[in-house]
Amino acid sequence: MESIALKATGINKYFHDPVTIPVLKNITLDVRKGEFVSIVGKSGCGKSTLLYVLSTMDTDYEGTLDINGVQATGKSLNALARIRNESIGFVFQFHYLLPDFTCLKNVMIPGLRLGKYSYKEVEARAYEKLKMFGVEDQALKRADKLSGGQQQRVAIARALINEPAIIMGDEPTGNLDSKNTGIVFDLFQKLAKDFGQTIITVTHDEDFARRSDRIIEMADGEIKSHGK
Amino acid sequence: MKINVNTEIALTYLSARKKQTAIAAAGVMFGISMFIFMQSLMKGTNDYFEKMSFNSTPHIRLYSENKVADTHMLNSYLKDSSVKILTNPKQLIQTLGINNPYGIIKEIIKYPRVANVTPQVTANVIYTSGSVQIDGNVAGVNIDQEDKMFDVQSNMIAGDLHDLNRVNNGLLIGKGVADKLSLHVGDNITVTSGTGSPTIMRVIGIFATTIKQIDETKSYANIVQAQNLLGKDRSYVTDIKINIDDYNNAPAVARDLETITGYKAEDWVQANEQLKAAFKIRAVILNSVIGVLLLVAGFGIYNILNMTIYEKIKEIAILKAQGFSGPAVTSIFLQQAIYIGVLGGIIGVIVGFLITLMVSRIYIGAGSLKYLPMSFYTPHYVEAIIFGILTTVAAGFFPARKASKVDPVTIIRG
User: What is the ipTM of this complex?
Assistant: First the structure.
């Protein structure tokens, strides 16, 4: 039996301002463990909205969402925060690093929050992650002193610190040149293949999408193709 | 290094904005140091006035009050078999002073809280020197006990008060009396009371309180001398002055002594109603000023945190995306407020102490008041810290709660 990392059933979502319009229409979706899935579609088709629903950050929807076999729908905000901390890593189009902290601290913060490992261990793990992306020599610089590509790599390292079951990316390579995009893609693939981590990304980059395991196509708030 | 991640973030935010942190802390510092300064000034002033009033007023004064005639004589004669009606009752003059004063003093000394007891004979007199006459009063006292209770020595500007025990017909006069009659130590003065014969006395010392009314009328004589002035015997005593261990208990002790002795016992609170009123008014003024100061400091913190949250709203969103819960975010921002409060509080306590110290060195030189009376009272410092922390927590709470309610989706998606 295949294990399911993420399961969404009958997701409906509406925007209410200024008038109520449906943005997600009856979306049902399974993602297996270790799968590398890209969600593609035109701007405004609801793919980012879907991602935020799947991420548990957006709770204003109908339907149910299971993460690692645990129902996330209806849980308290604090419980959801715990789920995100433990099981979901995020990579955004913009790096969103905390500029007042060093790169190392940025990577460490979610790990410290989880509190599973000691400070020293978290620090060692953070170094390891930075090394994976070749930015370990930037570790002690303040995050706002790095170049865009480096910042994004630090941000991805941060997403991985707690070894989450699912990594979600909202245009993770949207701001990167082709070289950096290549590095990020290879890493994502490695994480999925070698470490069994599930990757769900929303992307405009057709090349990136084509090389992933599965492409989910969306249009007008519906899934057009599950790409199986 | 065992430090909570929320604390670490809070501290990093504070140290990344040193200027803002410093300004907010300075606000708290001003609030707290002013709190301490004003409390010290008020307590110092109150203590001073209290002490001043105890320089002339005992904690409790026992005296025989004229009474309105009542029916108790008739009661003992007619018993309860009839209704007694007294028409047009008059004041009964109690010219004899206190009966058996030394017996009463012995009784009073037995009362546990009493610290000092001294008898006094008060005589209203006319001072005459040459052709000038002025009204006044002579307090016939045991000068050693009087000095122990009211620190007469500290008011002396000429002569030696102990001469009152040694010099026959010695008199210790107020500075006002001395000036008006142009008297110096060693001069003679004629003192006449309403009931005795004129007596020539010798000025053995001059005192000055800050109270003009006293300096221009009062003089001290030996108690026997005062009894002679009035033409009374040695058992004649008009007042018994009592000091107790804690003057705040005076009203209760006075009531007890009244019951024990049967004479009127007036406590210092009754005698100084206006002093109490002044204390209360000062307290109201002071507390409103302190309230405003702390409020302003609180608003400073509130503003700065609000601004920080506005600037950092994306970072808050990202922290939440990474699994920081609402309470964790609240803790990050509330901690910032608390650290600002603690920092400002510690500096404020030190600055408050220094200001108090500095002001206590300011020379005033009015009467016996040489320097501004400031008190160094530890509870003020504790109160200041407590109020400071309460203010900062209250000021930090609302921005922190706002931060905890940031919706990461709205912010990250823009």
Answer: 0.86
pLDDT of residue A228: 65
Whether B220 and B165 have beta carbons less than 8 Å apart is answered as: no
Architecture of domain A35-57+80-225: 3-Layer(aba) Sandwich (3.40)
Q: CA A143, A146, A147, A153 torsion: positive or negative? A: negative
Q: What local confidence, expressed as pLDDT, does residue B94 receive? A: 61
Q: Which residue from B5, B9, B409 is facing A52, i.e. has the nearest CB?
A: B409
B22 to A85, B17, B25, B28, B305: CA distances (angstroms):
34, 8, 5, 10, 13
Residue A158 sits at φ, ψ, to 5 deg, of -65, -40
Q: Do B322 and A55 touch (CB under 8 A)?
A: no
Facing A92 at nearest CB: one of B320, B323, B412: B412
pLDDT tens string B85-127: 888 888 776 666 788 888 888 888 888 888 888 899 988 899 9
- B109 in contact with A, Cβ within 8 Å: no
CB B406 within 8 A of CB B320: yes
Chain segment A152-188, per-residue pLDDT in tens = 888 888 888 888 888 888 888 877 788 888 888 888 8
What is the distance between the alpha carbons of residues A170 and A157, in angstroms, rounded to a whole number?
Answer: 15
Q: SS3 of A90, please?
A: strand
In a domain, B81, yes or no: no
The residue with tokens 């290094």 is B1
Instruction: Report pTM.
Output: 0.72
Q: Let me know whether B348 and B219 are in one domain.
A: no
B315 has a chain A CB within 8 A of its CB: yes
DSSP reduced 3-state for B211: coil
Would you say A66 and A7 are in contact if contact means Cβ atoms under 8 Å apart?
A: yes
On whether any CB of chain A is under 8 Å from the CB of B2, the answer is yes
- What is residue A1's predicted lDDT score, i.e. its pLDDT? 40
Q: Chain B partners of A105 at a C-beta cutoff of 8 Å?
A: 8, 12
Residue B366 has pLDDT above 80, yes or no: no
| B12 shares contact with chain A (CB less than 8 Å) | yes
CA distance B162 to B245: 26
Assess whether B348 and B251 both reside in one domain.
no
Residue where one domain finishes, among candidates B221, B236, B268: B268
d(CA A140, CA B199): 98
- Residue B243: which residues within 8 A CB-CB, separation 6 or more? B54, B58, B59, B60, B114, B115, B116, B117, B149
pLDDT category of residue B1 using cuts at 50, 70 and 90: very low
